[in-house]
Design brief:
By secondary structure, this protein is α/β, with parallel strands linked by helices. It folds into three domains: 84 residues, 3-Layer(aba) Sandwich (Rossmann fold), CATH 3.40.50.720; 207 residues, Mur-like, catalytic domain (UDP-N-acetylmuramoyl-L-alanine:D-glutamate ligase), CATH 3.40.1190.10; 142 residues, Alpha-Beta Complex (Protein-Tyrosine Phosphatase, Chain A). Helices cover 33% and strands 22% of the residues. The protein has 16 helices and 20 strands. A nine-stranded mixed β-sheet has the order 7-8-6-9-10-11-12-13-14. Strands 15-16-20-17-18-19 form a six-stranded mixed β-sheet, sandwiched between helices. Helix 6 packs across helix 11. The longest helix is centred in the last third of the chain and has 24 residues. The chain is globular.
C-alpha cells in the first residue's frame, strides 16, 4: 500500500494504549490530518501536555466503547490485547482495527527488514543495523526496541533500510506488512498469558511471511525445525543460517569463521574471534545478522568491524561484575523458559540461577536437565516461586528470596569462587517491576552494593 492510497485526512482515529508505540502513532496520525483520540487505562500520562499541545485528545482512566465504535479507524498498540472487548466491538461495527506496526508500514518509503523469534530478536536487530551502517547503508533501527516504527515515518526515504524488531503482539495486528527480508530466529512456546494457545502464538509469528512474494527473502534457522515449519508456505526466496547443519547454500559456522556458502563457493564473512558475546545462542544471533547483511550486499570487512565493536545489549547475558571470585551476569531479557535454558547452557559447573517472576507459560521442568548437568542451585523469586519449587525441588537445590536484594545475597552465599550467578528469570517482570529493564537495573544495583560491602569487609 502506498502513501497515496492510504489517507487518514479528516478521519476520526482512536489509538488504544498510550505507551511508546501508541504515542508515536497518535502523533503521526495528527500530522497526517486525522482527528485523534488516544485512549488508555491509566489516569495520568507523563506526556499529557505534549500530546494535547500536538492536538491529540486524551481519554484516560479506561476505554469507552463508543470511542472505538464511533471511529473511522482504530490503531492498537502492541501492549493492548488484539482481542480486547472494545476492539472486538469496533470490528463488529465494521471499523477497521490495525496495529501500530501496520499503520507505520503503510507510509514507509524505504525497505523493511523484519526480525522475529522467541529469543534473540533485540541482539540480532541491533547487530544487523550496525552491520548495514558499517557497510554504508542509511539505516533506521526500531520497532519493538528503540524508536517505534511510527516515529520513523517522516525520516523514511527511498534509500532507507528499516531494521525492525517485530513481536508476536505487533505481527498479529498486520494486514499489508511486507518485509523485503523477514527473519525467524527460532520458535518455542511463549506469551501464553496473552495468546490463548501455542498455535495462536505461532500463527502470529508466521504473519511475518504472509504478504511476501518471490521478490522477497525469508531468512530461516536450519537448526530449528519449528521455525522451518512456520515458514513452510512462504512465497519468498529462502536463505538458511546454521550453527551446525551442513547446509549447501546459506550462512553457517565453518571452522573458526562465519561463512557464506553457495554450492562449492565459500566466502569468509566474520571470524569467530571477533565476537565478544557470552553464550552460544548469541553467536547464533551473529550468524543470523550476517545472513541478512550478506543478502543486503554488505562486505565481510564491514560485518567484522560491526561485530568487533559490539559488546552486546544491556540485560542480555550482560556481565555485571565479580564479587569474591563469583561472576554475576544479567539476563533479565530471558523472559521465557527457552531463553532461560539457553542462558543456563552458556555456563559451567556450580552455576547459580535466579529464576522467577510472573509466569507466562511453559514448563519449568524443561530446565531440569541443564540445571542438573551443571549441579546448579536455583534462587526462586516472584509469583512463580510455588511453581518453581514444585517443578525442581528434589532434583535441584532451590532456595527462595523475597526481593532482589535477598536474591543476590542468597545467590552469592550459594556460589563458590570461580562459579557464576546468572539472573535468567524465565518469566515476565510485572509482579515486582515495571519491565524487564527495571528488573535488570535493580539486579545490577544490588550486585554493585554487594561488591562494595565485600570490598569493605576485605579492608577491615
Amino acid at each position: 500500500m502506498t502513501e497515496a492510497s492510504f489517507s487518514v485526512r479528516g478521519k476520526r482515529v482512536t489509538v488504544a494504549g498510550a505507551a511508546r508505540s501508541g504515542i508515536a502513532a497518535a502523533e503521526l496520525l495528527v500530522r497526517r490530518g486525522a482527528a485523534v483520540t488516544l485512549s488508555d487505562q491509566r489516569d495520568r500520562l507523563e506526556e499529557e501536555d505534549r500530546l494535547r499541545a500536538a492536538g491529540v485528545e486524551l481519554e484516560l482512566g479506561g476505554h469507552h466503547e463508543d470511542t472505538f465504535t464511533g471511529a473511522d479507524l482504530v490503531v492498537a498498540s502492541p501492549g493492548v490485547p488484539f482481542r480486547q472487548p472494545v476492539l472486538e466491538a469496533a470490528r463488529r461495527r465494521g471499523v477497521p482495527v490495525i496495529g501500530e506496526l501496520e499503520l507505520a508500514f503503510r507510509w514507509l518509503r524505504g525497505k523493511v527488514i523484519a526480525i522475529t523469534g522467541t529469543k534473540g530478536k533485540s541482539t540480532t536487530t541491533t547487530l544487523t543495523g550496525r552491520m548495514l551502517e558499517a557497510g554504508g547503508r542509511r539505516v533506521l533501527v526500531g520497532g519493538n526496541i528503540g524508536l517505534a516504527l511510527s516515529a520513523q515515518v517522516e525520516a523514511s526515504t527511498e534509500d532507507t533500510i528499516h531494521v525492525v524488531e517485530a513481536s508476536s503482539f505487533q505481527l498479529e495486528a498486520t494486514e499489508t506488512f511486507r518485509p523485503w527480508i523477514a527473519v525467524l530466529l527460532n520458535f518455542s512456546p511463549d506469551h501464553l498469558d496473552r495468546h490463548a494457545t501455542v498455535e495462536e502464538y505461532a500463527s502470529a509469528k508466521a504473519r511475518i511471511f504472509a504478504r511476501q512474494t518471490g521478490d522477497d527473502w525469508a531468512v530461516l534457522n536450519a537448526d530449528d525445525a519449528a521455525s522451518l515449519a512456520l515458514a513452510a508456505e512462504t512465497r519468498a526466496r529462502r536463505l538458511l543460517f546454521s550453527m551446525s547443519a551442513a547446509i549447501r547454500t546459506g550462512v553457517l559456522v565453518d571452522g573458526n569463521a562465519i561463512v557464506g556458502r553457495h554450492g562449492e563457493r565459500v566466502e569468509p564473512l566474520v571470524p569467530l574471534s571477533a565476537i565478544r558475546l557470552l553464550g552460544p545462542h548469541l553467536v547464533a544471533d551473529v550468524v543470523a545478522a550476517a545472513a541478512v547483511a550478506w543478502l543486503a550486499g554488505i562486505d565481510a570487512a564491514a560485518m567484522t568491524r560491526a561485530v568487533e565493536a559490539f559488546a552486546g545489549l544491556e540485560h542480555a547475558l550482560e556481565l555485571v561484575g565479580d564479587v569474591g571470585g563469583v561472576r554475576f551476569v544479567n539476563d533479565s531479557k530471558a523472559t521465557n523458559i527457552e531463553a532461560a535454558r539457553r542462558a543456563i547452557e552458556s555456563f559451567g559447573d556450580g552455576l547459580v540461577v535466579i529464576l522467577g517472576g510472573r509466569f507466562k507459560g511453559g514448563n519449568f521442568r524443561d530446565l531440569l536437565a541443564p540445571l542438573e548437568a551443571r549441579r546448579a542451585t536455583v534462587i526462586a523469586i516472584g509469583e512463580s516461586r510455588p511453581l518453581i519449587m514444585d517443578a525442581l525441588s528434589g532434583r535441584v537445590g532451590v532456595r527462595e528470596a523475597a526481593d532482589m536484594s535477598s536474591a543476590v545475597r542468597t545467590a552469592f552465599a550459594s556460589a563458590s569462587p570461580g562459579s557464576t550467578v546468572v539472573m535468567a528469570p524465565a518469566c515476565a517482570s510485572f509482579d515486582m517491576f515495571r519491565d524487564y529493564a527495571e528488573r535488570g537495573r535493580v539486579f545490577k544495583q544490588e550486585v554493585l552494593r554487594l561488591q562494595e560491602e565485600w570490598n569493605v569487609t576485605r579492608e577491615q
